[in-house]
Q: What sequence folds into this?
């Protein structure tokens, strides 16, 4: 076990826990940036400078566009974070990381630390995808893509520069798409909710509108 990789892995998971557990947009975005920046470093040897620079730029770009999109969010940028709180999320991440480290690297160039971090990221990324919150859906998607990449490193060794560049492009595209989703959710529903959860299926656009009445009413014979 490498102490340096262990410290980097703890930083990745700490950022991911904050991203999925925070109930305010800005801390969640900062946690996501930390996780995205530190994730490529869970590899031995470290990637070349150019791919690392691309990953750094992609992580900052994702955080920047989400930060801009959350400016118009109501209620001080409140988001649907974990109801269980960060201690439970940290416990789930720790349990998954322990299982991943026990599995170790399957291939000849496998990386147990990366396997541990990748499995923990997967466990943290799934719940936000079903919360119905635009920002949390984006955070879960970005973490899941990062988890798949880290798991690949754990199984087969360090990624190539081309893989890092492709991952950077995917993360940047996810950031842009989520920013548009956040903006659309705020513009149409006044909140970060992707789907309307009001009872009876009533939508704000339908409130105060009289139902259409048929022009023809048949007369009933007495």
A:
């Amino acid at each position: 076990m490498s102490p340096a990789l262990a410290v980097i892995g703890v930083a990745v998971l700490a950022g991911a826990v904050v991203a999925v557990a925070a109930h305010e947009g800005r801390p969640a975005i900062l946690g996501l940036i930390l996780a995205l920046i530190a994730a490529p470093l869970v590899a031995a040897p470290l990637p070349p400078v150019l791919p690392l620079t691309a990953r750094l730029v992609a992580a900052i770009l994702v955080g920047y566009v989400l930060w801009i999109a959350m400016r118009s969010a109501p209620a001080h940028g409140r988001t649907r974070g974990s109801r269980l709180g960060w201690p439970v999320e940290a416990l789930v991440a720790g349990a998954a990381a322990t299982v991943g480290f026990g599995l170790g690297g399957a291939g000849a160039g496998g990386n147990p630390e990366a396997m541990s971090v990748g499995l923990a990221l997967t466990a943290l990324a799934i719940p936000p995808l079903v919360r119905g919150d635009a920002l949390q859906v984006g955070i879960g998607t970005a973490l899941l893509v990062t988890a798949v990449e880290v798991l690949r490193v754990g199984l087969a060794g360090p990624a190539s520069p081309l893989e890092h560049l492709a991952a950077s492009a995917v993360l940047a595209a996810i950031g842009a798409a989520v920013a548009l989703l956040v903006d659309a959710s705020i513009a149409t529903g006044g909140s970060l909710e992707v789907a309307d959860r009001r009872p009876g299926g009533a939508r704000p656009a339908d409130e105060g509108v009289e139902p259409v009445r048929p022009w023809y009413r048949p007369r009933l014979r007495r």
Notes: The chain has seven helices and no strands.
